[in-house]
Amino acid sequence: MKRSTRYLLIVIAIALLPVVAKLQAMLDPGRKQFQPGKGVSSVMTQVGNNPVVLPSQFVAGTVVGFREVVAGLLWVRVTDFFHQGNYAAIVPLTRIITWLDPHQIDVYCTGAWHLAYNFVDSAQRADHRYLVPAMKFLEEGIKNNPGVWDPKFDLGFTMYSMKAQEFDKAVYWIRKASQDKGAPLRLERQTAHNLEKWGKIDECEKQWLECIEHAKAALKKNPKDLYAQDHLTLSQQNLDRLRLRRALRADLAKRQTNVHFEATFKRIAPRVFVISGKANLPDYARISVVLMDEDYKRPSLKEFTWEVDPNTTVLWDIGIHGIVVENGKFERRYDLTKDVKQYPFKKDRYILTLTFDPRTAANWVQDTTGWNGEGITDDKYLDTSVSGVRRIRKVFHLKREDII
Amino acid sequence: MAEAIRTEGLTKTYKLLMQKEPVSAVSNLSLEVEEGEIFGFLGPNGAGKTTTIKMLLGLTYPTEGKAWVLGKPAGDIDVKREISYLPESPYFYDYMTGSEVVDFYARLFGMSTKARNTKVEELLKLVGLHHDGNKPLNQYSKGMLQRIGIAQALVNDPKLLFFDEPTSGLDPIAHSEIRDLILKLRDEGRTVFLSSHQLSDVETVCDRVAILNRGRLLKIGKLDDLLHGSTIEIRAQGIGNDTIEKLKALSHGVRSEDGAILISVGESEGVNHAIDVIRAAKGQVLSVMPKKRTLEDLFMEIIREVNN
Amino acid sequence: MTTFVIAKSTLGEALRKKILWIFLLVALGMIVMSFSFAEFSMREELTIIKSFGLGIIAIAGMFISIILSINLIPAEIERRTIYTILSKPVRRHEFLLGKFFGALATVFVNVALMSVIFLIMLTWKNHWQPDFAILKAILMIFFQLELLTTVAMVFSVFVTPVVNFFLSSGVYIIGSLSDITEAMARNKDANAFVRGFYSVIHYLMPNFANYFTQNPIIHPEAPVQNEWAYYGKAIAYAIVYSSILLIVAVVKFEKRDM
User: Fold this and answer.
1) pTM (2 decimals)?
2) Among B61, B80, B87, whose Cβ lies nearest the Cβ of C257?
3) Are A226 and A299 within one domain?
4) Is the ipTM of this complex over 0.85?
5) C100-131 pLDDT, tens per residue?
6) Considering its fold, how many domains does chain A have in total?
7) With an 8 Å Cβ cutoff, is C78 touching chain B?
C-alpha cells in the first residue's frame, strides 16, 4: 500500500470520529426508551432503612445490559419464595425487578397483591399498614406503563374496592382501565358493580346500558366473539336485576327498620378481647371492625417504600371480614397475643369503630336496608357523615390498658 | 541473462523487549539469482534463510537494503502472479479436501472455473494425489501434505519458485521424485530458489549455492567452483611420531584409523613428498586414493571457520 | 473477488470449529429449557421466554464473536497458512477484510440458527401466532455483535489471543455502561477533567448499549417513539465505527512483519 493511501485512510478514520460522536449523541435520548430501567444503580440502593442489594450473580447481567434476563430470573426466584411462603423476601425482589425493567406489569400487580394480602396475622388477617405501599407500587406501575389496563384495574378493584372500600376511587381507576387498549370487556361490568357499591344507582344503570351497547357492537364485528356474548348476557341480567331491585326497594324509606344497634367491648386478657352486640339486621349482615391508634392517619407516600411504621397499630376487618350478624346478634373473640409485631399497641389511646355500611352488604341484606341505608334507622348510632349514606356506627375510645 | 532475484545490503534486525541490542536476523545480504537456474540457499538453523525468503516475498519488511524479484521491488503485487512459495512443513485449511485446497489457491489468481478444474486435475496427477483428491487434508500424511504444497505452488505456472525444505518428511522415492521435478522445472526455464538442509539434494540439483550463517552471506558461487580442489589420501603404517609430525607440516591433516595412518594431501607434488618422507622413515605405503570434496565438507569447513 | 474467496474459506473453517458448535448447542438447549416455566400466566410466561431467549442469543453471540475473532489473524500466522496466501497476488487488506467478512458471516449464521429455533418455539408457545417483532431485537443484536467482532479483530492484529480476549471483553463491558458514562459526562458537579474523560469514553469508545433494544419487544404495550429512526441510527453507528476500526486494522496490518 502506498504511503499516500495509508495517510488518506488515517485521515478518513479521524474524520469519521466526529461522525461517530454525533451519531452517539443522536442515539442517547432514544436509547432510554429502550432501556427504561435504572440499570446499574439497581444493583444496590436504599429504600428507607432497607438496603436493597442485588445478589452478586445477577450483577453482571445488569451491568452488561441484560436487565430483562436478570429481571426474568429474579421473577422465577420470586415464585420459589411464594411457594415457600416467604413473603418478606418477595417484596425487595419485586422492587429490584421493576427497577431493572419498569415494564414488568405482572410484577407490579403481583407485588402489590403480596403487600396488601400476604402479610397476615395468625388469623390470616392482612396487615392494613401495607395497603398504602401496595397502592403506591401500583401507581408507579401505572406511571411507567400508562397505556396498560392491568395495574389501573388492580388499583381500583383490589385496593380501593376490596380493601379500602373507597368506591369513588375504585370507579375512577376501573373506568380508566377499561378505556385502555386491550382491556377486557369485564372491566366495564366491574365499573357498574362498583358504581352500585358506591350507591350511584342511576349511573350504575347507565353503565349497564353502555355495557350492552358495547357488547352488541363487538358482536356485530365478530358474531362468534364469546367474550362479547358473555358481556351481553351478564350485562343484560345485571341490568334486569338492578331494575328489579330498584322497584322492590323503592319504598324502603317509608318503612325503615330500626336497627337497635348495641355493642360492647370486653377485654378478657392482655391482647384478648371480645366484641359483641345486637343489631336488628338480616342474617349475614356484617359489622366492620376497625381498631387503630387514635392519631392514625393513612400515610401519604411520595414514592414507593415497603417500610411501614412499626409502632402503628391498625386492625382492619371490613366488608366480608366483618363480624357476621345471626339472629340479631354478633360476637367475635380477638386474640392478638401471637401478633405483637402486627399490633404493637405502643400508643396510649385507640379508637375502635364498629360500622354497618349498607353499600357493601349482600343483596338480600340490601333488600331490607336499601343500597345506601335508606331502609334503616337507629336511635343512637345512625351515621350520616357520608353524604347520601345512612350507616350504623359506634365508636369506642380506648386506652392502652383497656386492651393490653 | 536477466536476474530473477537481486538483493543489495538486505538487512533485518529485530528489537526484542528484554534486550538492549537489536538482534540481527539477516545482515547486509547482497546476492543475485539468474533466471532459469536452481539456486541453493544453505545455512544452519537460525542462519536467516527463512527471513530472507520472507523479505523477498514481501511477508517481512527489511530494516535496510533493497530486494528485487523478477525486476520489480520485492512484495510487488503483480510479481506475485509469477512466483510461488512452498514453506517448510506447509499447513493448509485441513477441513478442505486436496482438490479444494488447490482450487482455493487457484481462485486467488482469479482463474475461471473451467481453468481451475483443469488445473486441479492436472496438478493432482502431477504430484501423485489424483486418487486422494477428495479426502480431507486432516487424513493426509506428511508426505501427502508436502505434495499438495507443491501442487499449490505450481497452480499459477510460476516463473520463480521458492522452495523451503521441499523434501522434508518424504520417503526416498518421493524424495527422488521431487528432485526430478525441480530439475524438470529448470528445464522448463523456471527459476528455483531452494532452501534446504538436504545437502545431497542441493549438490545434485543446484547450479549455484549461497551459504549463510548468523545472517551473513559466507560463500556464494557455482557448485563446481566451490567444490574444486579435491584431496588425495595416503594410507601408511610403520611410521613413528617424528615422521607423523613431519607429515603434518606438509599435509591438510593426519589421522589414525584401524591401525594405519591417513594423510590428506592437496596436490600431486605433495603426494610425492609425503611418500618420500614415509619411505625415508622405513614406513609402508598401503594405498594412495583421490578424494572428491563434497558440499557437506565445504559447508562444515566454512561453518567451523566462522565459529572459530 | 479475493476478499470473497478468503471470506468463504474463513466461514467454512469457522463453521467446523467444535467450540463454536458447543456454544451454539448450549444456547439452543437453554432456549428450549426456558420454555419450561409453566406456572406463570400466559403474559408472564411470554415475557420470561422472550427475555431469556433474546438474552441467550445475545450472550452466546457475544462469546462466539469474541472467541472467533481473537484468533482470526494470530491463528493464520501461527499455522503459517498466511504465508502461502500472501505470497499469492493477495493484498494484505483483501486478506484482512476477507477474514473479517468470513467471521461476520459465521456470526450471522449462528445468530440466524438460534433465532430460527427461538422464533419457532415462541410461535408454538403463542398458539402458532408468530411474533416477528422479535426480529427487530435480533437485528440489533446482530449489529452489536458486528461491532464486537470488528473490535476483537482489530485487537487480533496487535495482541495475542489471550490478551485480546480480556481486552475485547473489557471494551464490551465498558461499552455497555452507557447509563453511567453518559451521566458522568453530563455531571455538572464533577470537574472538567472528569467530565472530559467520561465524554471521551461515552462518545468515542464503541457503545454496545445502543443495541439493547429488547425491552419494547418483550413488553409490546410499552410505546416507543421513532423506533425505526433509532434502529437506522444504530445501524449507521455500527457501520461507521466498524469502518474506522477496519481502517486502523488495515493500516497496522500493512506494516506488520509476518
Assistant:
1) 0.82
2) B61
3) no
4) yes
5) 999 999 999 999 999 999 999 889 888 898 88
6) 2
7) no
